[in-house]
Each structure stands twice: as structure tokens, then as C-alpha cells.
Amino acid sequence: MLFNFQLSTQAQGLVDITAEVTEAITESGVNEGICIVYCPHTTAAITINENADPDVKTDFIAGLDRIFPDFEIFRHAEGNSDAHLKSSAVGASETVIITGGKPLLGTWQGIYFCEFDGPRKRKFYVKVMGD
Ligand code: ZN
């Protein structure tokens, strides 16, 4: 089953979408399987990372800003090549194991939608397969 979700983002940042992914799995009725969380945007991404200390989200963006600055050599007229680089580096999707009708995540893991060029209206998909 395919589920889609919408969200409104800030300029840059990580949005915890673990609850939405869990909701999709519950609604699908799948007990054992996998799901793919997919972002159909070129300046955003999906990742799994720490959900305990909110400073990790801030540091995640601060670190990517250092690795992918807005270089003067960029030619892309939209002026957001740094966001395109971050999107591909982090990746458009994550695969999550489903067991017992829930996403198999570590104690400190959450699933995040990563915005690199907001604020925008965004969407993401959850494809649930199994049983
Ligand atoms: Zn662009």
C-alpha cells in the first residue's frame, strides 16, 4: 500500500516523521515486512538519526552547511545548488524493517524529513510491503 503525507517546512531543518510512518504501517495492516519512506523533492531528503537530543538536528544542519557551502562557482540560476548537494548526499529514501506491526528502530532512532531549501509545502511517500 502507498501512503502520502504533506508537511510545511521551515527554512532548513529536520522534521520527525516517525509517527506518520508508524501510522501508515498500522493502517496497512502489515505485521512483518518492509517500508520505503521516499521524498520526491530535489532539495530535501529522508534520514534516520537520533531522536533524543534536539541539538543533534541543529548540528546535522550546521555540519552540512560547512560541508556544502553556497560556493560562488555554482551556475544553477535558482541559487540553491548547496541544497541540491545536501539532498543527494543524505538521500531521497530510507528502507525500514517492519516487525510486530511497527517500524524496527533503535531506542534513539527517529525517521526525519530533511528540508534544505524551505520554507516550502512538501510531501513524502510511505510504501508498505509485507505479510
Ligand atoms: Zn534548484
Tell me the CATH architecture: Sandwich
Number of domains: 1
Q: Indicate the CATH topology.
A: Jelly Rolls
CATH superfamily: YjbQ-like
Mean pLDDT: 97
Number of strands: 8
- Topology order in helix (H) and strand (E) letters: EEHEEHHEEEE
Helix percent reads 25-40%
- What is the C-alpha radius of gyration, as a whole number of Å? 15 Å
Judged by helices, strands and strand pairing, the structural class is: alpha+beta
Describe what you observe in this structure.
- The protein is an alpha+beta fold and 131 residues long.
- The chain has a single domain (2-130), classed as Jelly Rolls (Sandwich).
- Helix content is 26%, strand content 38%.
- It has three helices and eight strands; from the N terminus they run ββαββααββββ.
- The protein has helices at residues 18-28, 55-67, 81-90; strands at residues 2-8, 13-16, 33-38, 44-50, 93-99, 102-103, 109-115, 121-130.
- The strands form two sheets. A five-stranded antiparallel sheet has the order 1-8-3-5-6, with helices on one face. Strands 2-7-4 form a three-stranded antiparallel sheet, with helices on both faces.
- Strand 5 and strand 6 (102-103) form a beta hairpin.
- The chain is elongated, with a radius of gyration of 15 Å.
- The model has no long low-confidence stretch (mean pLDDT 97).
- Zinc ion is lined by residues 76, 78, 80, 84.
